[in-house]
Specification:
This protein has 327 residues and is an all-beta fold. Among the domains are: 100 residues, Sandwich (Immunoglobulin-like), CATH 2.60.40; 123 residues, Immunoglobulin-like (Sandwich), CATH 2.60.40. It contains one helix and 23 strands. The radius of gyration is 25 Å and the shape is globular.
């Protein structure tokens, strides 16, 4: 399963003697999906956003039709005023159904004079073994985790899916708790899937699991307690109680590799460092100020796992470092 991006950001800014005034921020456009892997008969949600209300026009989504059916589309806008500062954004939401199996790509979407990044989507075939057993099943749970073998502090992606062909009067699903691991929620998706001509409501919850010890990591079974209508409902009938459990799992967690030098252990998919100046540092004048912002972004890590940026002195200038912000 492709990795769901789990971004951690650390920024640190400081002031030197240079001119005031921040550079105007340009409109930023983004594309994201709620799932990177779907079965052929499932749907996924694509969200396009522009962080400025000044953005005009509509995204060009014509190339989406090469590999996806666009089943639904919605548009919204939002304006926030915080401490006298106004920020606005526009958002477009699309429900997509893949046309074929395999590795597909949501192409870069043109939005005005900018483009979003392309997104990879894996479309898997329907599970025929599961289909053969669904005739007499109305509610069940499935679970998966990737990778099946990992390192200490490496992110594992766990998902649990609730399939239902009936309406719940009420339902409760255990949250994921794992001994010797940190767990962060990655959100919830709701969609419909057809299996052998029957329509099922699917609720999928995703978690990031960070093992803290080497050895066998035990992922417990999650329990669903649900109440549905009785076969012969009446006004005084509280309904039928259903209990379902997801399969438990065991994952092999290894210590850092033998050739690791022990300096800084970051089991991330990707680490990037960016910097941004409020004005051109080559044009500094004595007595003026400037702001430099440094961002560290890591895929597959929590913000707390990122290292602190080193402090340093700059001859001829006074530095005023801000507190780092973790996201």
């Amino acid at each position: 399963m492709p990795r769901i991006k789990y971004l951690a950001t650390l920024w640190l800014s400081f002031f030197a003697l240079c001119c005031s005034g921040l550079a105007q921020a340009e409109t930023t456009v983004r594309a994201s999906v709620d799932r990177n892997q779907v079965a052929l008969e499932e749907t996924l949600n694509l969200t396009l956003s522009a962080d400025s209300i000044l953005f005009s026009g509509e995204p060009d989504v014509s190339e989406l039709s090469n590999d996806f059916h666009i089943l639904n589309r919605q548009q919204s806008s939002r304006t926030n005023i915080v401490n006298g500062k106004i920020s606005s954004s526009r958002q477009w939401d699309y429900t997509l159904a893949p046309k074929r199996e395999g590795d597909l790509t949501i192409p870069a979407i043109t939005m005005g004079n900018k483009q979003t990044k392309a997104i990879s989507i894996r479309v898997t075939p329907s599970n025929s073994a599961r289909r053969q057993n669904t005739d007499n099943r109305q509610v069940w749970l499935e679970a998966d985790i990737t990778p099946r073998r990992g390192y200490v502090q490496q992110m594992l992606e766990y998902s649990v899916k609730l399939y239902s062909s009936v309406n719940f009067l009420d339902a409760t699903l255990d949250p994921l708790e794992v001994d010797n691991a940190l767990v962060e929620s990655l959100g919830e998706s709701r969609y419909r899937q057809r299996i052998d001509g029957r329509s099922f409501q699917v609720i999928e919850r995703r978690y990031a699991v960070f093992p803290q010890r080497s050895g066998t990591l035990e992922i417990p079974a999650l329990t669903l307690q649900a109440r549905v209508e009785s076969y012969r409902p009446s006004l005084l009938d509280p309904g039928r109680l259903l209990v379902r459990r997801s399969p438990p799992m065991e994952i092999d967690i290894q210590s850092p590799p033998a050739d690791f030098d022990g300096a800084l252990w970051l089991p991330a998919g990707n680490v990037e460092i960016f910097e941004e100046w409020s004005s051109d540092p080559e044009q500094l004048q004595v007595g003026e100020s400037i702001t430099r912002r440094v961002d560290i972004r890591a895929e597959g890590l929590m913000a707390a796992q990122l290292p602190a940026l080193p402090r340093y002195d700059l001859a001829g200038a006074k530095l005023y470092p801000d507190q780092p912000v973790l996201q």
